[in-house]
Write a structure and sequence with these properties.
P-loop_NTPase, three-stranded antiparallel beta sheet, transmembrane, binds adenosine-3'-5'-diphosphate, 14 helices, five-stranded parallel beta sheet, Rossmann fold, about 45% helix
Length: about 350
């Protein structure tokens, strides 16, 4: 009996020992690869001499830990408040465009230590019922942050909804507005693909893209089709310009954010007056996903959900040509107003 127990104990110790050695080897390998990757985020004093604020990394980690505990119910609201954490109205909003890459932009900006994202789309300004709940309701939907940090939210429906510019203006007339756009025809097809997936899930029948985008009676582009209308960026922007000067907008090239995210993010950092903190270390290309993914630190990295980057259906090339021709003059106007020329056909 005693012999059996000793053998069992020896076996357990052997397993534990191999586990410990394995973990050690893994850590050594990770640290080794980290050296090669040359992390640029410093451990302390995350803002340099040009920066406006200091966020020691340990404080940020503590903040995350505390909020985790808070969510689990192990930490009181008072404890969170004791750490000077507040729920702030957004200083910048990604107002659109749907399927432009709004989620990728929000997640990538959240890599910056001074940015805190609202994870969910809040739909405060475009939904009358939510708007009626008042600005305090909206503020309470925001994540906890340090006063020196900025909160960003994204709700792509804002860009195309009539009432939104005035409502946002009433909240903060100097807010910064981010618009991420993609080549209009590709965006329309992406929009269609998302709706199609929803219909298929519900076993509903749906028309082909060609049938929706082209009016069968006139053989012209169907401007009543929402996916087409949303891609006429200049029309929507003109409504916004009745409330905000163009300097308060920044246009992000959504096509470039897919292939070369860092320079696009650096432009946004500049626009938001943030010190440059997002680096190549934070972004790595994942060949399986076919997209850039996010690396927050040595332990935590993530790719966007599978619903981002759907395979588009094949569309009749003559329809694509027709749509591109249709969007062309609107695109020219958009470049002229925004001062950003994009390489769209
Ligand atoms: P597709 O699904 O058409 O490829 P939104 O978040 O506004 O709905 O935009 C979705 C689009 O973001 C996707 O469109 C995808 O191409 C694009 N995107 C940009 N960067 C991405 C990334 N790093 N990972 C996944 N999708 C990304």
């Amino acid at each position: 009996m005693l012999f059996k127990q000793q053998a069992w104990l020896r076996q357990k110790l052997l397993v534990l020992g191999s586990l410990a050695v394995g973990s050690l080897l893994y850590l050594v390998a990770r640290v080794g690869s980290l050296d090669r990757l040359q992390p640029i985020c410093p451990v302390e004093g995350r803002f340099g001499a040009r920066g406006q604020a200091e966020f020691p990394l340990r404080a940020l980690q503590f903040k995350r830990g505390l909020l985790h505990e808070f969510r689990k119910g192990n930490s009181s609201k008072e404890q969170v408040h004791l750490q000077d954490l507040v729920q702030q109205l957004p200083k910048a909003i990604i107002i659109g465009v749907r399927k432009g890459g709004t989620r990728a932009l929000l997640e990538m900006l959240n890599l910056h230590p001074a940015v805190v994202k609202a994870s969910q789309e809040i739909h405060f300004f475009d939904n009358d019922d939510n708007y009626a709940k008042g600005i305090e309701w909206y503020r309470k939907k925001m994540p906890f942050s340090y006063p020196q940090q900025i909160t960003i939210e994204k709700s792509p429906a804002y860009f195309i909804t009539e009432e939104v510019p005035e409502r946002i203006y009433k909240m903060n007339s100097s807010i910064k507005l981010l618009i991420i756009v993609r080549e209009p025809t590709t965006r329309a097809i992406s929009d269609y693909t998302q709706v199609l997936e929803g219909k298929e899930r519900k076993n509903k029948t749906y028309y082909k893209f060609e049938k929706l985008a082209i009016d069968p009676n006139t053989c012209e582009v169907n401007t009543k089709y929402k996916a087409v209308r949303t891609s006429i960026y200049t029309k929507h922007l003109e409504r916004w310009l009745k409330y905000f000067p163009i300097e308060q907008f920044h246009i992000v090239d959504g096509d470039r954010l897919i292939t070369e995210p860092l320079p696009e993010l650096q432009l946004v950092e500049k626009f938001l007056n943030l010190p440059p903190r997002i680096s190549q270390y934070n972004l790595y290309f994942n060949a399986t996903r076919g997209f850039y993914c996010l690396r927050f630190n040595i332990i935590f990295n993530k790719c966007l959900a599978g619903s981002k980057g759907r395979i588009h259906p094949e569309v009749d090339p003559s329809v694509i040509t027709k749509l591109r021709k249709f969007f062309h003059p609107f695109n020219q106007k958009f470049y002229q107003i925004t001062g950003r020329t994009l390489n769209w056909p």
